[in-house]
Structure formats: structure tokens, C-alpha cells
Amino acid sequence: MSLVNAEGAADLLGTLLDIPDTQDARSRYLSNVLAGFRDFFAVQSVTLVLGRDGRWEVDATAGTTGDSADSMRSLANTLPLTQVSEAVDSGRISVDDDVCVVPLSEGPDSARQSAALVIHGAIDRTRQDMIGDAAVWMNRVLVHVEASQNYRRRIEQQNLVLEASARWQQSESDEALLKAIADTACQLLHCERASIFLWDRRRGVLVGRPALGIDGQTLEVPDNAGIVGEVLRTRKPCFWTDKSDKENRVNRNIDASLNFQTRSLLAVPMVGERDQVLGVFEVINHQHDSFADADAALLTDLAVHAAVAITSLRVKTKLAKSRDRLLKDAASSSVMIGQHATIRAVRENASKVAQSDLAVLIRGDNGTGKEVVARNIHFQSERREGPFIAVNCAALVESLLESELFGHEEGAFTDARRTRVGQFEAASGGTLFLDEIGDMSLAGQAKLLRVLEEKVIVRVGGTQTIPVDVRVIAATNQPLEDLIRNQRFREDLFFRLNVVPMNLPRLVDRGEDVLILAEHFLKQFRYEAGRVDLKLADDAKVGMLRYSWPGNVRELRNAMERACYLSTGDEISLPDLGLRGGQINSRGGSSMNRLLDAGNGELDRLTEATRDFQIRHINGVIESVGGNMTAAAEKLGLHRSNLYRKMRQLGMSTSGG
Q1: Alpha-carbon gap, residue 424 to 415, rounded angstroms
Q2: Statement: residue 436 has pLDDT above 90
């Protein structure tokens, strides 16, 4: 560049290349450069104008009018708009009287926003080339400053988006989450309102929440209507402004009903995992008139994180429902069935003790339901979402007891190839059920007592203490008081476990509960066996009441399961239960069916006779249908697979089927 005033040219060049390293770098740079232009070229004013929404606006100026809002508006009214447009369109400097317009964009095909310098003051032709060269330098530096400032702004915005996204993840409901997302969008994009339109594919509508930023309302629009429908279809951002776009693209009826005026709008698609469109994110009325490309980029970032948050909440909600359903199913399987006074008392005590972490000792014969009571307590407690782990102490040999309960470190002994978590650690946050506690060795009892008192464990081969948060419920079928007298059970451990004692009665002592439990198991197993019409015959009911049930509830359950699969006909009769004749209790009265009248040890022979009858009957039915097993099963009231099971149970050959 050839400059008349070399010293002034050096100053101007220094100003052109002096880039402020501040957040407001662009405005500072323009203020300095435009003032340098004015002083060097000795003109009245130098103004930078930008093309926005089809009109020219003053961006920055240096002159005698000042830079107040009123001065800027007054200056905008004096702009030679036609001259500016022609200069930008042609890409050449335009001089008319005392006004010179220097285009800063690269002509009509430039992707950058249209811009020009408007210079008021006489500039001779010899200096027009100089000001054109200086404007080129200014434009290049300005592009760099804008890019740098936009990059810094994008980094700041990304940090704000990430912080907001982290807060969104804490939301517990759709309403709270969508409101938080909309509030963040309004704050970061400097707009009045925001809505998230979620796509209901089945109904073909977009549901906006919160509706136009108004709490407690939703807005439903067809998924092919308006700007949101366009965004959903094209999956691209869409702008709208009332100064340049068609009115029919927005729904003015909604504005009228809410006493609201939409002036500008930006909408972007919300795309979730697997490239699936969840809906549309919309913001309305930018505080500075209209939305720009930078706003679309920011809203797109927000939409990405919003889609993740919405999807995560849906998954979390679904998992919570599944968890609650599983907990409900698990709890229903641990219900204590029966109306006997002792069972009602156990149920009542279980409900009370479940609200605490008190140790419970359940005592009763094998098969009386000690684990059912323990599970019932667990699923009524605040620990219901934690694990329930049952350990059979009788099955733990002395050498493995400590490793099983407390875990071990890698290399602690010969077979310890890796670190193993013990049952106390595994049950942390939940309940540990120690069944058959009376069979634990004295050494194991001592270690258990220490853990119960200190609430920490040390793995075998380790030195680090590990805190455990476990509720312990123990059970036994042995007389612990006798074991204590014989020095086979620690008295201090007994008192530590026996904080809340519960005693379960034998099934034979529970009266009519036998039939209540039988009906409960019948309902469960007949559906599993595919025999929904199966019932208990009267002789079976009488027999169950007279039977002594040495195996208690476990034996009754097994008998009902076996009968549901193997009995013939629509009723379960006494022989189908397979009860042991020596265990019949005579107190049942004289109403016993003739099948019991054999008495005096004759029931075993009667059962054998019944078995022979069943074999002959099944063979007769099979022969009557010509060996068609499906037809035979139907005639016997069984499924084909159940007929085969029955035949195998009776020792019959099934190879022919």
C-alpha cells in the first residue's frame, strides 16, 4: 500500500493488526479501527453496516454523532441504502458526492454475512484504492476476531450446556425435566419462551411441554403441520421471523388465545440413540430481534443433551417400574399363608420388626417356612431394594466357612486364584439369612459374633477392614439352650441373635391352615401344569386334615405339585397325594373316606392296589383309542406331556409314544 503520510499509515496498520485479547474483542477492535480510518482519511464518520433479514443495520461507527442508541438509529435513517446494496452486489467501491461505500463481503456469492463500510466525507480518487486495501485488511482481521470470539463463546456455551445436562440428570419426573430444559434454553439463547415437542408416532401428533413456557399446559399439533412439522420431516433447523417470512408458517390462533405475539422462532430436531427422532426443540422471540446460525448450533447442542436426558429418564422410569414389579412379585412369593392364631401373631410381629434392623431368630421344625418369614421381613423393610442372601450354615465345612461368609484375597490359600467377595459383602445394603445357625462350628460362631458387633469384616488373607451394612436374620430347628448347656453353642452369640425371637408351629398344629395352604399351592401349580379346572376331592381334604405332615409345609407343597402334574381326572383324590400311611392321624373323625378304612397299617397295600388300578385304567384308555396318545390324554383329562409323566411315575413303558 502506497501512503502519503508514512507515519499515519504505520499507525493505521498497527491499529489494523492490533487484536484485543478480551471477551469483547470484536467491539473493541471495530471501535479502534473505525476511529483510525476516520482520523487517517480525515472524514466525518466511518460506519460498518450489516445485512440482516433483508435490511441494512448499523453495527459500529466512528464519527461526530457518538455511539448512543439514539445516535445509531438516527445514523441508520441517513444511510444511502441503494448505494450500499449496489456496492455489495457488485463487489466494487461506490462513490457518490461525499459518500463512499466499500463492500467487505466477497461479492454476491459470498457465504459470509453481507457487510460494508459507509464513509461520510470527501475522498479523492487517489485515496480510494488505499481505503479499499485497508478495508480488505480490516475484513480479514475481523473475520479472524469473529472466529476466535465465536470459538471462545462456543466453548463457554458447551461448558454451560454440560453443566445444565448434569443437572437435568437429577430430575425425577418428566415435568421437572422438560421445564429445566426449557429454562436453560431461554437463559442461553436469550429468548422469551421454549418448548420441547415430543413425537407421539402412534397418534401422529407433537406434544409440546411446557406449552409455550406456560406451566401446567401442553400443546398438541399435527406432526406434519407448521414449522415443527417441517423440522420433523427434514431433520434440519428452521428459522422464522415476522419481518421476512410468511405468516401462515406459524399458528396465530395460539398467539391470540394466550395474548402472545411470536416475532421470531427457531426450531431444531431432537435426535436420540440409533438416529431416532424424539421430537422438536423450539425457542421463541430472541431478545435481539432474530435468531442466527450460532443460535441454531447452540440449540442443536442443547437438543442432543436433552434427547439423552429424556431417554435416560424414560429408561430409569422403566427400570424403576420393573424393579417395583419384581419386588412386588418377590414379596408376594413370601406371604405367610394361614389364619391360625400363631401364624397371625408371626405375621404381626414380622411387620413390626421389619421397620427396624433388630436381629431376628426364627425357630421351628424343618419345612415350617423359616426362610419365608425371613423374606417376608426383608420385603417389608427399607432394605427391600437390597439383596436377600440365604446361607445354609449346615452345608459349610469348617475349612470354607470363613471364606464363604467373609471372602478371601487372591493367593490366600492354594485354590484362591482370585479375590472373592463373601456373603456379608454381597448382602451389604440388604438382608443376610443364616439358616441352620445351630450347626455352625464354635470357631465360626466366634468370628460371626465379632462381625455382628463391629459391623466390619476382613477377608481371608487380607488386612483391610471392610464395613458391611447388613441386617442378619438367623434360623434353627435345634434347641439352642441345650446346645449352650453342652457347650456346643456360644451363649453370647445366642443373645446377640435372639433379640426378636419368632417360633413357627408344626403344620399339624395349624388346623384348617392345611387346607388354606393346599388351595394356595393348587392355584399356583395347576396353572403351571395347564390344568386350570383341577380341584381337591373331599377325600383328599379329609386325608390332609388327618395326616401328621412330618415334612410340614414343604411336604404339603411337594405333594400338591406332584398331584397337579400326575393326577388323572378333574379332581385330586387322596391317593394322588402320595401320603405316607404310617403318618395318618386318627383324630380326623369317622368321616374318612373308605380309602382310609383299611387302617392298621393296611394303607400301604391299598396304595399299591390303587397304583395297579391306575395302570390298568390308563392301558384300557390307550387301547380304546387305538394307541393314540393325544386322544388318550384328552380322554383322561390330561395334557399329553402330563400323561407321559404319570406313566413314568407308575413305572409304565412310554416307548410306544
Answers
A1: 21
A2: yes
